[in-house]
Design goal:
The protein is of the alpha+beta class and 573 residues long. It has helices at residues 6-21, 26-41, 67-73, 81-89, 144-196, 200-215, 256-263, 319-355, 361-408, 412-439, 442-447, 449-464, 481-502, 536-547; strands at residues 45-51, 57-63, 93-95, 117-124, 127-135, 217-226, 231-238, 250-251, 267-270, 290-298, 301-311, 467-472, 506-514, 517-524, 551-555, 562-569. Among the domains are: 6-142, Beta-Lactamase; 217-312, Beta-Lactamase (2-Layer Sandwich), CATH 3.30.450.40; 442-569, Heat Shock Protein 90. The model has no long low-confidence stretch (mean pLDDT 78).
Length: 573
């Protein structure tokens, strides 16, 4: 074979650069660089080793060896002998005969004979990515010209590796940001569902299902203590592995779940390690599984344990997984606390009813309702604050990270993907803010009923596409806090019913103080009330009206639609 001319060598360098610019698969690109190097130098063999995080060879691309020869050689080199010298010193190395160098560790069985050697670091921007190796020069030795040309090709290989890693990092960061945004948006839905569910077991099932979905795990279980019996019961199990999970009771003091409960600490245990659960006689059901557990703490008292087992992708749980399970444990704690509070209030109401036989039923109901609704509003405030501090704050951090990454990236496609993800996170933040406003509108506390109703109408119109016409009179901002809250919740529930059931296009909301009477109406042009309509929402409106000694009437006007009318006496006008 005739020696390549200077023009031939430059053409090979240009072709290698073109391969990198085309954005080929990294292995294909590096193979093109190695083949170009062997053609330029007329070397019999060429290879390129890419270094991994441990500074050893993690990827080894060869040319000149047949498939049969590669199979006979067995495992690829990791970086000993002369290859290790190149890794450690990171500078060009030319040898007349590899076997004459005292640093050589020899060749493995079935390795073809090799003598002359040229090694070149693949480096860029102060980072060594690997090394380019050539052996068996046609004239018995590699030249300075060979070294110069191979140096150019090694620089191109460094660019290819750096570009591939940057793209991989950007893709992973965008995917992590997308998943984080999806998780936080889903958490707002879980929070709302738990808040509206009065049955404790169903609320805990909701939390477990969300944990299965968000963590992508095979099992989530909720363990609840029975201190009188001295055991822990697995009352809830969700996920693909739930049917085969042993839900029988375990001793409170001699079990994994009981220990997490009593200690009140979160933990990650890899049960795939046979010794990890050796201290727990009753933990056989968890053996062989990767497990994270979070105590469900109400006040300072552990009330349950939330366990998740085995990610679907087979990977170990991460710190982010543990943090997400902790947020869901907070929701479970809210469900337990709300259930206990309502149970206490129900028991108190029953006791008051027995003790106050001389009081009117209406007065006793108002007192009970006032305490129950006060508890609900307190929990709404607490959850709204938690959503503001943790969920909205976390989403904002993700948004800032996406903006920074978008500014740093030069690739238009990647920037477009990040821009789309950023818009999704921004929308999620608005959804969270709407949910916070639904739970406890700060404008109601700060400015009064009038501005709060205006904000509510604006939000509902934006979400639903309905045309809302609020007409609000004077004096609404001076109403007592309990009256303002009751009116706001009645209007909120009435508008929610319109959106979900009425099939309306227009809604009017009026509120005014007339002759010592507060009159509030919500009227739509939809299909009207169905006969016997009395769901939980309407019952809630009636309860709130009774709490402030008012009344709610449901009307279906002759011209169609529906009207909810609230009125109460507030004194002289």
């Amino acid at each position: 074979m005739a020696a390549p001319t200077e023009q031939d060598k430059l053409a090979e360098v240009v072709e290698a650069g073109t391969a990198i610019a085309r954005g080929l698969d990294l292995d294909d690109t590096l193979r093109a660089v190695v083949e170009a190097a062997t053609r330029v130098t007329r070397a019999a063999y060429g290879a390129l080793g890419v270094l991994g995080p441990d500074h050893r060879i993690s990827r080894f691309i060869t040319t000149g060896l047949s498939n049969e020869q590669r199979e006979l050689l067995g495992e690829l080199p990791t970086g000993r002998g002369i290859l290790g010298v190149l890794i450690d010193e990171a500078r060009p190395l030319r040898l007349l005969d590899l076997s004459d160098d005292p640093r050589s560790s020899g060749f493995p069985p079935n390795h073809p004979p090799m003598h002359s050697f040229l090694g070149m670091p693949v480096a860029g921007r102060g980072t060594v990515y690997g090394n380019l190796y050539l052996t068996e020069a046609p004239d018995g030795a590699f030249t300075e010209e060979d070294e110069r040309i191979v140096g150019l090709l090694a620089g191109m290989a460094a660019v290819a590796i750096e570009n591939a890693r940057l793209y991989q990092d950007a893709t992973q960061q965008a995917e992590q940001a997308r998943r984080a945004a999806e998780a936080r948006v889903a958490l707002t839905g879980a929070a709302a569902a738990v808040l509206h569910e009065h049955d404790l077991m169903e609320a805990l099932r909701l939390v477990a299902r969300e944990a299965v979905r968000l963590l992508r795990v095979r099992l989530v279980a909720v363990a609840v203590p029975d201190e009188f019996a001295g055991v822990v019961r697995y009352d809830v199990a969700e996920g693909p592995a739930a049917e085969t999970f042993d839900t029988s009771s375990v001793p409170l003091g001699d079990s994994f779940a009981g220990s997490v409960l009593l200690a009140g600490v979160s933990i990650h245990v890899d049960g795939r390690d046979a010794s990890a659960l050796g201290n727990f006689v009753s933990a056989k059901r968890l053996a062989g599984h990767d497990v994270i557990a979070e105590p469900v703490v109400v006040g300072e008292e552990p009330a349950a344990v939330l366990l998740a087992a085995d990610r679907e992708d087979g990977e170990q749980f991460t710190v982010d997984d543990q943090e997400l399970l902790g947020v869901l444990a907070t929701f479970a704690a809210i469900a337990v606390h709300t259930s206990r509070s309502l149970a206490r209030e129900r028991a108190r109401a029953e006791a008051l009813a027995r003790l106050r036989q001389t009081q009117t039923d209406a007065e006793a109901r108002r007192e009970t309702l006032a305490r129950v609704i006060e508890t609900q509003e307190r929990e709404r405030r607490r959850l709204a604050q938690d959503l503001h501090d943790r969920t909205a704050g976390g989403l904002t951090s993700v948004l800032f990270a996406l903006r920074r990454l978008e500014r740093e990236l030069g690739d238009d496609d990647q920037r477009a993907q990040l821009s789309e993800a950023r818009e999704g996170v921004s929308a999620a933040i608005e959804d969270v803010r709407d949910l916070i406003a639904d739970l406890r509108p700060k404008v109601l506390d700060d400015f009064g009923l009038g501005p709060a109703l205006e904000r509510l109408c604006s939000t509902v119109a934006r979400r639903s596409g309905l045309v809302l016409r609020p007409e609000l009179g004077d004096g609404l901002d001076e109403l007592a806090p309990e009256v303002a809250t009751a009116v706001y919740r009645i209007v909120q529930e009435a508008l929610s019913n319109v959106v979900r059931h009425a099939e309306a296009g227009n809604v009017g909301v009026t509120a005014a103080i007339l002759g010592g009477q507060l009159v509030v109406t919500v009227e739509d042009d939809g299909r009207g009330f169905a006969p016997g309509s009395m769901g939980h929402g309407i019952e809630g409106m009636l309860d709130r009206a009774r709490m402030v000694a008012g009344r709610v009437d449901l009307e279906s006007p002759a011209g169609g639609g529906a009207r909810v009318r609230f009125e109460m006496q507030i004194g002289a006008g």
